[in-house]
Amino acid sequence: MRYACGMSRRLADVASKVGVSEATVSRVLNGKPGVSETTRQAVLTALDVLGYERPVKLRGERARLVGLVLPELQNPIFPAFAEVVGGALAQQGFTPVLCTQTAGGVSEADYVELLLSQQVSGVVFAGGNYALRAAPHEHYARLTALSLPTIVMNAAIEELPFPCVSCDDIAAVDQAMGHLASLGHTKIGLLLGFADHVPSQRKLAAARRFASRNGLELAPDQIEHGLFSLESGQAAARRLLQSGVTGIVCASDPLALGAIRAIRREGLSVPEDVSVVGYDDSAFMSCTDPALTTVRQPIESMGRAAIELLVSLIDGAPGTHDELLFEPELVVRASTAPVRSSAR
Asked: Which helix (H) or strand (E) holds 329?
């Protein structure tokens, strides 16, 4: 192989990354024998991670890279998920390529093209357009056409053929509303994601069933939709308080923290006047004031299951459109309490 300008630097960079000699890297790039498959894959992965092009004869192989596409890192549940997935991938000999969207920045579709250019072995999506019925979905068709192993986390639109690993939204709502009902709350508000967000649609349907079965009121002014952010939670909770709710079930922990802020700014107390239940049990929810009662997603189990499923697809297992449902867990802390007798 004739080395162009910069080739010696490339060899040195890859050798340093993998911890092998430049001669070993050269043997891999030239397809020479005498290198173990583990070392060979490590060299090719390092080449991809460092942004160097593979030799033409090696470009037909997919890299041992897996794209991890997240909507943001502000919500602490997503860094937690990235940590679990990254660890599970490392154990399987893969390297995650983290793609995080920002407002006005690189789109999910752009990230898909970037990952395809890196010849990734698969992609895991969490909190993406796949869960929004009105969002663009053309880039998923690209992945389907290429038969690239793809996993989505939490409920997706029905048209997508990808396996899905989800927390059971029905069980989560039953636990949250059941907890508030057991404390005497009969008028419970809901703070959910966008109206076309599939997990939020599932939660709303579950809440309506729960209310109907248990003789609770759930009027339109007890339901609010918005962004999964503290600010959105605060604005929506202020509207819910006008409907007279004594308890609020939220579709994320940031929404719940926003609700608590709104309640306090109205001169009320949590949980004495209004109880609040979050969703996720993300980092530091036990350290808030008050400590947040929330429904815990089993992120560790879900993340590891997603990677096991992805690796099986990469290894040639037939694809399915199955959804693996994981049971959530209600974590009771200090943001919920029995309803005041005057509010009953």
From this structure: strand 329-331
pLDDT tens string 277-311: 999 999 999 999 999 999 999 999 999 999 999 99
H-helix or E-strand containing 85? helix 77-91
pLDDT digits (tens, 9 = 90+) for 215-232: 999 999 999 999 999 999
Residues 6+ apart with CB under 8 A from 38: 93
- Report the alpha-carbon distance of residue 61 to residue 47 in Å, rounded: 13
- State residue 101's pLDDT score: 81
From residue 39, give the alpha-carbon distance in Å to each of 55, 67, 162, 276. 17, 22, 32, 52
Mean pLDDT of the chain: 91
When pLDDT is averaged across residues 16-40 and rounded to a whole number, the result is: 85
Q: Classify residue 165 by burial, with Cβ atoms within 10 Å: 0-12, 13-18, 19+.
A: buried
Decide if 177 contacts 212 (C-beta within 8 A).
no
User: Quick one: pLDDT band at residue 1, thresholds 50, 70, 90?
Assistant: very low
Residue 224 three-state SS? strand
Distance in angstroms (rounded) separating the CA atoms of residues 104 and 102: 6
| Token digits of residue 233 | 């939670």
Q: Is 313 left (phi over 0), alpha (psi -120 to 50) or beta?
A: alpha
Q: Among candidates 329, 343, 321, 58, which has minimal Cα distance to 165?
A: 321
Whole-prediction pTM value?
0.82
Query: Prior bond to 290 cis, omega within 30?
Result: yes
